[in-house]
Design brief:
By secondary structure, the protein is of the alpha/beta class. It has seven helices and five strands; from the N terminus they run ααβαββαβαβαα. 47% of the residues lie in helices and 12% in strands. It is globular, with a radius of gyration of 16 Å. The mean pLDDT is 92. InterPro entries: PHI/rmpB, SIS_dom, SIS_dom_sf.
Amino acid sequence: MEAIQYVAEIVKELQRSAEQIADAEAETLADLILQSNHVFVAGAGRSGLMGRAFAMRLMHTGANAYVVGETITPGIGEGDVLIIGTGSGETKSLIPMAQKAKSLGASVVAVTIAPESTIGSLADAVVRLPGSPKDQASGSYTTIQPMASLFEQTMLIFYDAVILRMMEKQGQDTGRMYGRHANLE
């Protein structure tokens, strides 16, 4: 298969994934973010990279958004929300974050393939995204892509859709967001 054929198949996979996302879960996430004092985003590996992109767009909307683990990230507390992107919901470094956030009165959202996972069970809200886990032998969703690529791509598109919904609710447009774009580049 040629590279462009792979691109076409990936786009088809993403379309099938997008059709499986529950609108109510997306709406809940947008509302939690809009009602929170601070938004914290966490994830490991490529899921973490998708979270970093989401945190950047959240900042562009005017949200007080932070990536867990950065040196400028403040403490979490009551009225805040922690959004954890994790395919398996069992990432060992992320479970204590969810537990700590809950103990400090923050809301926790799991964006995951596995709502019944440890992190999913700790969460106040769960967004179930389709995709194959890294261990495809245990997954029921088939993909031509390696490891958890489909989940990670779906997560990025989902996060962008949440940003669009937030923009709509706030009456924001792209021009206003550009006012918060980095200008020391």
